[in-house]
Amino acid sequence: MNVKIHSSWREKLSEEFDKPYFDTLTKSIRDEYTRHTCYPKGKYIFSAFDHCPFDETKVVILGQDPYHGPGQANGLCFSVNDGVAHPPSLINIFKEINTDLGVAYPTSGNLERWAEQGVLLLNATLTVRAHQAGSHQNLGWEKFTNAVIQKVSEECRGIIFLLWGGFAKKKSVLIDSSKHHVLTSGHPSPLSANRGYWFGNKHFSQTNTILKTHNQTPIHW
What we know:
By secondary structure, this protein is of the alpha/beta class.
């Protein structure tokens, strides 16, 4: 696995890349991609970092692992490539944005437009085997992405972390809430959303209110 990652992140995470576990992870992922169909394509594995440089990060959204259907995953959590049908969780995200901010439901589910405004769209596991959700968990990705969260927490200030669902909420222990903003709610998946744990969280308007309070440009969701 050739680690193609934005120079700002490469510098911040250089110690992680040099650790033995990352070498083991690299070999495991290379083997998986050789033997099986895996997503996203290799060049997109670190897209979350490439589209959102470290020093420009304002918001962090945490997902679990990439979509495992053909053509869906593009390296950004909850995001799909242009022209791909929107998965249920993404549909509910867009519905909440529409209700919260009055923003029209978009044609494209590609969230690069968010990333380029400073939203780090980070999955805990950056790869997955086709049609097998969670298949690359426990290979080492979580150790790496936990280090990413801790690095942001330690070296930045005023970052808005959006933690949706039980899995993401557990990451709050990695975040210094005395210097960052942590917003939590249910997951946008239909199971959670239909039980009333997602809709109405107003995370998107809250995020922009916080950004404006700190004289930062709000996100065009």
